[in-house]
Amino acid sequence: MNESSMQHWGRRDFMKALGIGLALRTPGTVLADSEGNTSSPKMPTESFIDFLKAYGEACPPSLVYRDGQDFRAWQREFRQRLEELRGPLPDRVDPEVEVLERVELTDHQRLLIRFPVTRFSRAVGYLLLPNGLDRGERRPGIIALHGHHEGGIETICGVRQTDYDPYALRAVRAGFVVLAPAWWGWPGRNGHVERVGNRDKCNVAQMAASMYGIHVLNLHVQDGQAAIDVLSSRPEVAPDRIGCIGNSYGGRTTMWLTVFDERIKACVPAGCMNHFRERSLKLSSCAIQYFHGLLRYGDVQEVFSLIAPRAMQLQAGKGDGLITNRDRDMIKTVVEKAYRLRKAGAKLEYVLHEKGHQLAWDSAEPFLRKHLRLTKD
């Protein structure tokens, strides 16, 4: 190859040629080193999991609550650390609502809406309005957050028929006004997914956002707060009676949104009673579930403890393969203590149901009716 042809070689050409060269090797091929030795050294297999395990044991979370501390002071300090971990966000704009579609159904109306969150982004969601409201009547509002199910808001609002319990649809049929916002990567906000290919769409989005110092989770919290603005402004909604529900990633975002927005008076996070420490050692959590650096200060039970004394029903399903019994029970114990310390034990419920990785609406409904004061059927 002459110098002129080499100049036209790019990285792809080089890697292709390298791959051909490697393919010519057969298993067991012994290569000579620079001095002609042909011994075959045994390559080590160091594990990154071993590194994480050892590092986590040597550097445990530094802000776990200790007996004897002022619990409210601990809550303030831990929340401040979380605020620092969140990083930058674009400024919010007024969420002027655009109605894209209106469907009249037997017991409710379903509006497909879009509204700006920042100068750079718009949120999409389904607004579900129960039929039969009296003139001037205000009902409790619920923010319903979807998980990783491929249908996103279409699944939880009953637009797609699946074996997944459509808890947003169940909520509007119970008489609540419901807004279900779509997360980045799911129907309504998935215009970029074709570029992801076979990779994990959550991890790919976070990889790209990290170059700007942005957490996708933080964008979703901001989207959720904009959704609360929209829901609270509706004439059918009592803005002082807002709830939040979700399963899996929807349960995780229910946890985070409730922590950062005290307009939420009652929440039902389901399918998320697992530790990030445990997830890290299994290399199994998607990258938009947590704020980077969280384990320096605490884990899931510490985050849930910030919700006290507001009403919360923690749900977990028996046989949920994503949650270990040990982690689930530890989170329950720590959060129960947090509510006792805030003298709010009556506002915490724990439901261990038989539905696996699902939100059990039959348990959530009476809890939300009670704490959001919904009296009509």
How far is the first residue's CA from the last residue's CA?
81 Å
What would CATH call the architecture? 3-Layer(aba) Sandwich
Number of strands: 9
Judged by helices, strands and strand pairing, the structural class is alpha/beta
- In CATH terms, the superfamily is Alpha/Beta hydrolase fold, catalytic domain
The main sheet orders its strands as: 1-2-3-5-4-6-7-8-9
Low-pLDDT stretches are 1-8, 20-25
Number of domains: 1
Q: CATH topology, which one?
A: Rossmann fold
Specify the number of helices. Answer: 13
Shape assignment? globular
* Integer-rounded radius of gyration: 25 Å
The largest β sheet comes out as: 9 strands, mixed
Beta-strand level of the residues, as a percent range? Answer: 15-25%
Task: Provide the residue-averaged pLDDT.
Answer: 92
Order of helices and strands: HHHHEEEEHHEHHEHEHHEHEH
CATH class: Alpha Beta
Into which percent range does the helicity of residues fall? 25-40%
What's the topology here?
Elements: H1 3-7, H2 11-23, H3 48-58, H4 71-86, E1 98-104, E2 108-118, E3 121-130, E4 139-145, H5 153-156, H6 167-173, E5 177-181, H7 201-210, H8 216-233, E6 237-247, H9 249-260, E7 264-270, H10 276-281, H11 300-305, E8 311-317, H12 325-341, E9 348-353, H13 361-372
Parallel strand pairs: 4-5, 4-6, 6-7, 7-8, 8-9
Antiparallel strand pairs: 1-2, 2-3, 3-5
Structure description:
The protein is of the alpha/beta class and 377 residues long. The chain has one domain (86-372): Alpha/Beta hydrolase fold, catalytic domain (Rossmann fold), CATH 3.40.50. Helix content is 36%, strand content 19%. The protein has 13 helices and nine strands. It has helices spanning 3-7, 11-23, 48-58, 71-86, 153-156, 167-173, 201-210, 216-233, 249-260, 276-281, 300-305, 325-341, 361-372; strands at residues 98-104, 108-118, 121-130, 139-145, 177-181, 237-247, 264-270, 311-317, 348-353. A nine-stranded mixed beta sheet has the order 1-2-3-5-4-6-7-8-9, with helices on both faces. Helix 8 (216-233) crosses helix 9 (249-260). The longest helix has 18 residues, at 216-233. Mean pLDDT is 92; it is low at 1-8 and 20-25.
